[in-house]
Amino acid sequence: MKSAKSCFALNSVCWKAALLSVCLVWPPAGLTSESPNSTLAEKMLVETLKNIQYLELDEAIALSAELTKNHPDYRLAQLIHADLLSMRAGNFGLINQIHQSNPRTVGRYKQEAEVRWRHAHSDENQANVTLAHSVLKVGEQPHVIVVNLAKNRLYLYQNNQGQLDLLTDYYISMGTAGGGKQREGDRKTPIGVYHITDWVPGERLADLFGVGALPLNYPNIWDQSLGRTGHGIWLHGTASNTFSRPPQSSQGCVVLNNDEMGSLVTKYNVSLATPVVILNEKVETVFFEAEKLAVLTEINAWLADQGQNFDWGKVSVYRYPNEEGLYYATFPSVETDGHLVHQYWRRGHDGGWQLVLQTTDPVMIKTSLS
Fold first, then answer.
1. pLDDT range class, residue 370, cuts 50, 70, 90
2. What is the pTM of this model?
3. Strand 200-201 to strand 143-148: parallel, antiparallel, or no bridges (unpaired)?
4. What's the chain look like in SS3?
C-alpha cells in the first residue's frame, strides 16, 4: 500500500500545474497590502501552495484549515483544503470526480491560485518599472491608482511632492472576457486612463457590489471618439458571502476584496478625480527618457503659448495604454472653476507633436470620499 505521503506526491500535480512550474523563491516578495485580514490570508494561501510544492502534506493541511476557519467564504481556500483532506484519506477518486464535474469552477479558482503565486514570487521592482512607463508627470492629486490586468493587481501610489510612493497593492478580478472594452455588454474591462467620479456606499447597492463602489468616467472622450460604448465601469467589492472572485469573473468592472475596497476610501482617503490607469502589460514596455522629455516639453510650451496663467505644477501627463504614441494630459481649468481639462497628444507624420483631442468637464477635485 502506498503511504499518504507518496499518494500526495502523485496527486498534487493538479495544484503544481496551477503554479505553472514557477521557480520557487521564498520568502515571497510583493505582499505589500495593508489590510491585515487580506494580507494574512494571501500570505497563508501562498505558504500552503509552497507546502504543496514541497510535498509537505501536514503543514499544508494545517495552514489551509486555519485559513478556511478565518475565512469560511474563501472558496479557493476551501477547495484546496478539501483536496488536501481527500489526499490524506487516499480518496483520490472523489477529487477527480469533483474536478471533472465542475471543470469551469475548479479551473477559475486554480487560475486565482496561479495569479497569487506569481505575484508573491515576482520582482518587487516591476510595479515601479510599470509606473515609470505609464506616468510621466503628476500634478497635485494625492493619489494615483494603476491597475495591471495582466497581473490581476491594483497598485495605489501616494503623491509626495511629485514623487509617487507605493502604498499598497491588491489582487483584483476583471471582466470575464479580459481587457480592452469596445462595446456595451462585451464583458471586457476598459484599458485607458480614467478618473473616479463618485463613491457609492454598499447600503445603496445590491449585495453583489460589497462594501461600495467607485465609478469611473468610462467611456471618456477618447473612447467616445473611437466609438466605444458601455457604462457603469466601477471599482467595487465582493458579495457578502465571497472573500474573493476568480481572475476573470466580472461584467467589466475591477473587483476587490471587501476589506481592501474599503481601505481605499477609509484608510487611504482616495478622493474624487483620482486618476486610474488601467493597462494590460505582461512585459514592461521599453520607454525612452528622450521621448518623455519631448512630450513634457511640447505640452508645457503649448500651454505657455496660450497666454494663460496656468500652473505647470498642477499638470499630469500619462502614456496612454494600448495606444501607440498617444499621451494624455490633464489639469484644472483656469477658466472654469471645478473643471478638469483633458488633452490627448500624438506625434504627427512630420515628427511634430499634435493636440488631437481636448475637452473640459466638471469634477470635484481633492474631495474626500469618506
1. low
2. 0.88
3. unpaired
4. CCCHHHHHHHHCHHHHHHCCCCCCCCCCCCCCCCCHHHHHHHHHHHHHHHHHHCCCHHHHHHHHHHHHHHCCCCHHHHHHHHHHHHHHHCCHHHHHHHHHHCHHHHHHHHHHHHHHHHHHCCCCCHHHHHHHHHEEECCCCCEEEEEEHHHCEEEEEEEECCEEEEEEEEECEEECCCECCCCCCCCCECCEEEEECCCEEHHHCCHHHCCEEEEECCCCHHHHHCCCCCCCCEEECCCCCCCCCCCEEECCCEECCHHHHHHHHHCCCCECCCEEEEECCCCCCCCCHHHHHHHHHHHHHHHHHCCCCCCHHHCEEEECCCCCCEEEEEEECCCCCCEEEEEEEEECCCCCEEEEEEEEEECCCCCECC
Report the C-alpha gap between 108 and 221 in whole angstroms: 34
Report how far apart, in Å, the C-alpha atoms of 95 and of each of 13, 48, 103, 113, 245 are. Answer: 12, 18, 12, 17, 22
Sign of CA dihedral 27, 29, 35, 37: negative
Torsion of CA 5, 73, 267, 270, to 10 degrees: 110
Q: What's the pLDDT tens digit per position in 197-250?
A: 999 999 999 999 999 999 999 999 999 999 999 999 999 999 999 999 999 999
Spatial contact of 216 and 276, defined as CB atoms under 8 Å apart? yes
For residue 108, give the C-alpha cell: 477559475
